[in-house]
């Protein structure tokens, strides 16, 4: 009798890349529900559009690179990239904006750099930054969240018409600045933080509507950390980095620098900490390195928000730290079993 | 002792030990033919002492230990030697090795057995006796025990003597059963180790999923001062380094030995064979083998060395359905054999006939996504994914700098890898490449030295010849005749 010879171990944990990716998708659901509640159907339309374009682009690239379609398309990593990007796009972003963003992410940032596991930069953030730099006007046109007195709630049909360029009504009355935008422009006009924060746009903590989405992403993110689908060191590092530097500036001059809780709870800080920065392919891979990597992102976010040209800086901060990750890994190797205590 | 010191990483695996641990140890049936490999231990192959046609008795030495790191091999029963040649053996390479084939006569007639009084023997004489009795580590590594019972040069006296009864591999239960049934004899073996090694403390580590074994060992150790220490059930707690850390909080140094930190570790079954060898004069001719998985009656068998795997499978009622792989050892570190006509050796702790139910069938390998799950479970605190990249890129120097040789090949990283990358295989490959290159370098160095020595010798001979010629008055050319084809000159006339 002859038997197959295969190398050990002969039992494996029931896990797969696809399982990890699907768990990321599940974890995004609470945040997505909150966003749809406050910003309407547009978020959902963007998600569907981005998913379809991502899967088509992924399949085309896999065929061109002669990779097995079933296992590589089935890992749902393209869907994760699509969702991570779509959630960050304005709810009424024109369709071509989503398409260009997804194609930049999947074709350029992912496959032209070698495909899953080889890309040095976070694909979703590459797509986002391409759009932010190329189409700043479209990228900053956000809807006024539900409950802030917008004159009209868009139906699904109107949303589709707006996204695909046949809007029957003017959208100008429905759009407004995001809380971080308001903070940035009004600080530039010489107003104090206290005066700015009186605007209803800021809600309870850090932005009406936005803060609920943040709560949703926090819940999903904590679950990801709990099931070990995301490394805890990265969100802890990033949020502490942001909190420490924000607290420092706030203590020095509370009228010119926003309080740390506003920074932590607004914009893409929590979303970025749990969903963007934790992309394992582009992050640091050592336990200590992940803390440093996260802290670096947190500090860069503050610097870009406070002193840079954009209201939020998560995408730029992540990309900047992506390229630092290999070096961080080199200098943060763990102490090997039996090596002298350092 | 209740306190233990966790090691980093490890995994919770399936257990599946009760399949084979419900029945007592069964004696192995006497087959008509035994094929006894001469290389059943780490170190030099034993030198054959018999020829085809010789009659041998049970326990008679048939292979002599060759050097310090080696062990003797004995006839497992009485009979006639059929052949001394290369036969298939259980080895991952599938290559044959030197074996003595014995036709059994069914009489099982023992050679004269001489118990030794180890308290009166000089330690070096005792070590020779242990080597000649073929005692090696039975946990699977089969390192000659005599070598481990010599501390000279490493430390004066052991702090801890550790007995390894952890048995963390799934499916395996041979150590569990030997502790349940032969605890007193294990303790008698420990007495001999204590006499030679003189440790401050004796710790017996057993995973806490073996309450019967813990109870039996506790009872046998009563009054001896030896401590039975239950340790949490977490693979690979049975690794010598991990068990040492668990029990003593000490880590064997990188590139060092456990004796550098005053620790020596033996398997419990080794202690049992040591007792039989010294106190009864019986060399190692059998061992307990767990036969489990897809066989009709999984159980532990006290099998004669040289018994074919197929014979043990038959004794267990034959294969059940759908056996895909035949694994020697556990599913985490054992290797798959392609045939079952190979003999039981001292390293054969478990035979697992595995179908798709017992093992994970091969999955498509995906690219590494650097998730770091392997880092979290590595008990050697390595960066497995980094080692993988280096091995793949053939950057062996970098792999070595990232402590490739601290890898114990436990398989935890492959076990948790979501991309199903055969990581351990990459580490074995890298290690082998590095060893091969080192060997090549050594050979090149040797060749260089030989060449230099030869050139020096030729130069010296030339100078000596010239000196000689100068000393003697050179004969005129006309008087010399060259003998054709030899280059020798003879004086003419």
Give the distance, in angstroms, between the N- and C-terminal Cα atoms of chain B.
Answer: 98 Å
User: Biggest sheet of chain B, in brief?
Assistant: 6 strands, mixed
Write down the overall geometry of chain A: globular
Task: Specify the overall morphology of chain B.
Answer: globular
Number of strands of chain A: 2
Low-confidence stretches of chain A are: none
CATH architecture of the largest domain in chain B: 3-Layer(aba) Sandwich
The number of distinct helices of chain B, counting runs of at least 4 residues, comes to: 14
Estimated helix fraction of chain B? 25-40%
Give the topology string of chain A: H per helix, E per strand. Answer: HHHHHHHEHEHHHHHHHHH
Q: Number of domains in the coordinates of chain B?
A: 2
What does the main sheet of chain A amount to? 2 strands, antiparallel
Account of the protein in words:
The complex is a heterodimer of chains A (342) and B (493). Helices cover 60% and strands 1% of the residues of chain A. In chain A, strands 1-2 form a two-stranded antiparallel sheet. Chain A is globular, with a radius of gyration of 21 Å. Chain A starts with 16 loop residues before the first helix and ends in an 11-residue tail after the last helix. Chain B starts with 17 loop residues before the first helix and ends with a strand. At the A-B interface, helix 1 of A face strand 15, strand 16, helix 10, helix 13 and helix 14 of B. Chain A: The complex is composed of six subunits: RnfA, RnfB, RnfC, RnfD, RnfE and RnfG. Chain A: InterPro entries: NqrB/RnfD, RnfD_bac. Chain A: Part of a membrane-bound complex that couples electron transfer with translocation of ions across the membrane. Chain A: Belongs to the NqrB/RnfD family.
């Amino acid at each position: 009798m002859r038997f197959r010879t295969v190398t050990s171990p002969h039992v494996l944990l029931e896990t797969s890349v696809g399982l990890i990716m699907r768990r990321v998708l599940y974890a995004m659901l609470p945040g997505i529900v909150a966003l749809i509640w406050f910003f309407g159907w547009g978020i959902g339309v963007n998600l569907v559009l981005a998913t379809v374009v991502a899967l088509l682009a992924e399949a085309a690239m896999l065929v061109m690179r002669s990779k097995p379609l079933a296992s590589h398309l089935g890992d749902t990593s393209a869907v994760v990239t699509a969702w991570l990007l779509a959630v960050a796009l304005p709810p009424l972003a024109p369709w071509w904006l989503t398409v260009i963003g997804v194609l930049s992410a999947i074709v350029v940032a992912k496959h032209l750099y070698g495909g899953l596991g080889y890309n040095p930069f976070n694909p979703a953030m590459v797509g986002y930054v391409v759009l932010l730099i190329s189409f700043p006007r479209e990228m900053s046109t956000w809807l006024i969240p539900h409950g802030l007195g917008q004159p009209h709630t868009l139906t699904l049909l109107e949303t589709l018409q707006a996204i695909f360029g046949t809007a029957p009504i003017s959208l100008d009355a429905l759009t407004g600045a995001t809380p971080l935008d308001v903070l940035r422009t009004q600080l530039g006009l010489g107003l104090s933080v206290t005066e700015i924060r009186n605007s209803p746009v800021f809600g309870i903590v850090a932005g009406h509507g936005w803060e609920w989405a943040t709560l949703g992403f926090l819940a999903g993110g904590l679950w990801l950390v709990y099931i070990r689908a995301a490394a805890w060191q990265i969100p802890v590092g990033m949020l502490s980095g942001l909190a420490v530097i924000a607290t420092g500036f706030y203590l020095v001059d509370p009228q010119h620098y926003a309080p740390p809780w506003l920074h932590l709870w607004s914009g893409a800080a929590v979303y970025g900490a749990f969903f963007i920065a934790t992309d394992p392919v582009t992050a640091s891979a050592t336990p200590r390195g992940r803390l440093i990597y996260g802290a670096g992102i947190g500090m860069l976010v503050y610097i870009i928000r406070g002193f840079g040209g954009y209201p939020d800086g998560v995408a730029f901060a992540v990309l900047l730290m992506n390229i630092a990750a290999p070096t961080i890994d080199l200098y943060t190797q763990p102490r090997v079993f039996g090596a002298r205590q350092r | 002792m209740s306190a233990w010191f966790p090691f980093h990483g490890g995994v919770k695996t399936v257990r599946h030990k009760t399949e084979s641990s419900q029945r007592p140890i069964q004696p192995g049936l006497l087959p008509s033919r035994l094929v006894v490999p001469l290389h059943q231990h780490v170190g030099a192959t034993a030198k054959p002492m018999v020829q085809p046609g010789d009659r041998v008795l049970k326990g008679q030495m048939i292979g002599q230990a060759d050097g310090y790191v080696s062990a003797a091999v004995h006839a497992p029963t009485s009979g006639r030697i059929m052949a001394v040649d290369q036969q298939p053996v259980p080895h991952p390479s599938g290559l044959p090795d030197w074996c003595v084939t014995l036709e059994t006569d069914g009489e099982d007639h023992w050679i004269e057995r001489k118990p030794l009084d180890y308290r009166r023997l000089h330690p070096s004489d005792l070590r020779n006796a242990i080597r000649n009795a073929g005692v090696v580590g039975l946990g699977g590594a089969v390192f000659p025990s005599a070598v481990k019972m010599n501390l000279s040069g490493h430390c004066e006296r052991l702090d801890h003597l550790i007995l390894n009864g952890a048995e963390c591999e799934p499916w395996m239960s041979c150590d569990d059963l030997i502790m349940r049934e032969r605890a007193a004899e294990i303790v008698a073996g420990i007495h001999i180790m204590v006499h030679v090694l003189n440790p401050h403390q004796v710790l017996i580590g057993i995973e806490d999923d073996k309450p019967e074994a813990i109870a039996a060992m506790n009872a046998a150790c009563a009054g001896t001062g030896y401590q039975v220490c239950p340790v949490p059930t977490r693979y690979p707690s049975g690794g010598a380094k991990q068990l040492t850390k668990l029990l003593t909080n000490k880590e064997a140094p990188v590139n060092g030995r456990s004796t550098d930190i005053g620790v020596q570790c033996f398997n419990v079954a080794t202690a049992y064979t040591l007792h039989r060898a010294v106190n009864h004069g019986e060399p190692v001719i059998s061992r307990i083998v767990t036969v489990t998985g897809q066989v009709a009656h999984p159980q532990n068998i006290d099998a004669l060395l040289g018994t074919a795997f197929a014979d043990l499978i038959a004794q267990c009622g034959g294969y059940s359905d759908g056996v895909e792989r035949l694994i020697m050892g556990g599913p985490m570190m054992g290797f798959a054999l392609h045939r079952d006509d190979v003999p039981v050796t001292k390293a054969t702790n478990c035979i697992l006939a595995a179908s798709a139910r017992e093992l994970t069938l091969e999955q498509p390998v995906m690219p590494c996504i650097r998730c770091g799950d392997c880092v979290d479970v590595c008990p050697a605190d390595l960066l497995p994914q980094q080692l993988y990249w280096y091995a793949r890129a053939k950057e062996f120097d970098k792999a070595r700098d990232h402590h490739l040789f601290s890898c114990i090949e436990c398989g935890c990283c492959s076990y948790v890898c979501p991309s199903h990358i055969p990581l351990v295989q990459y580490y074995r490959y890298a290690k082998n490449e590095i060893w091969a290159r080192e060997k090549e370098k050594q050979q090149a160095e040797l060749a260089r030295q030989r060449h230099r020595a030869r050139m020096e010798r030729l130069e010296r001979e030339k100078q000596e010849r010239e000196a000689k010629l100068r000393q003697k008055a050179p004969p005129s050319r006309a008087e010399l005749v060259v003998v054709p084809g030899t280059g020798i000159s003879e004086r003419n006339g």
